């Protein structure tokens, strides 16, 4: 895979996040972020008026940012999502290691307008992987 597009989020008016709860193996909307001397704490809603708060680290939760784009079904695209393009190719959305925003990898070059019109969320990196160009469940999800 090669880098095809980098999208900068510094111009976004509102930042939005979701959290991957590693115990429950589900995504949840983030209610609040708090940064202090202990690190980044995240409060997320788990349903029925209940919420959980924890420090973001590799053992409990993983924070994922909204890209500012939606797929062809108007679902919000977050980092960690796996998309399928109009030609059936799969691509993963990752945060930009060289700065702000996101990088999308694929075999085809696309523009911003294509992302929301012709790409569809088909999975995420926590539950799926891309093997030989095909979407497959992660071993932990089988």
The tally of strands reads 13
Order of helices and strands: EEEEEEEEEEHEEE
User: Mind telling me the CATH class?
Assistant: Mainly Beta
Fraction in helix: under 10%
User: Going by CATH, what is the homologous superfamily?
Assistant: YopX-like domains
Main beta sheet: 6 strands, antiparallel
Main-sheet strand order equals 5-4-3-2-6-7
Shape: globular
Q: What is the CATH topology descriptor? A: SH3 type barrels
Q: What layout of secondary structure does this protein have?
A:
Elements: E1 2-7, E2 17-21, E3 26-36, E4 39-47, E5 50-55, E6 61-70, E7 76-78, E8 81-84, E9 90-95, E10 102-106, H1 112-118, E11 120-124, E12 128-131, E13 134-137
In short:
With 142 residues, the chain is mainly beta. Helices cover 5% and strands 55% of the residues.
Q: Which terms would index this structure?
A:
single chain; SH3 type barrels; six-stranded antiparallel sheet; five-stranded antiparallel sheet; globular
Fold and architecture overview:
- The chain has 142 residues and is mostly beta strands.
- The protein has one domain: YopX-like domains (SH3 type barrels).
- Helix content is 5%, strand content 55%.
- The chain has 1 helix and 13 strands, in the order ββββββββββαβββ.
- Strand 8 (81-84) and strand 9 (90-95) form a beta hairpin.
- The radius of gyration is 16 Å and the shape is globular.
- It starts with a strand and ends in a 5-residue tail after the last strand.
- Residues 1-6 have low confidence and may be disordered.
């Amino acid at each position: 895979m090669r880098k095809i597009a980098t999208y900068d989020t510094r111009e976004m008016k509102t930042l939005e996040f979701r959290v991957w709860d590693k115990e429950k193996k589900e995504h949840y909307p983030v209610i609040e972020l708090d940064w202090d001397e202990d690190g980044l704490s995240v409060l997320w809603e788990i349903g029925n008026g209940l919420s959980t708060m924890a420090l973001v680290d590799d053992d409990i939760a993983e924070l994922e940012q909204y890209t500012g784009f939606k797929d062809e079904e108007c679902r919000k695209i977050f980092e960690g999502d796996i998309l399928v393009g109009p030609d059936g190719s799969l691509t993963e959305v990752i945060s930009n290691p060289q700065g702000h925003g996101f990088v999308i990898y694929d075999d085809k070059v696309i523009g911003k307008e294509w992302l929301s019109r012709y790409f569809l969320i088909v999975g995420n990196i926590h539950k799926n992987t891309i093997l030989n160009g095909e979407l497959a469940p992660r071993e932990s999800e089988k």
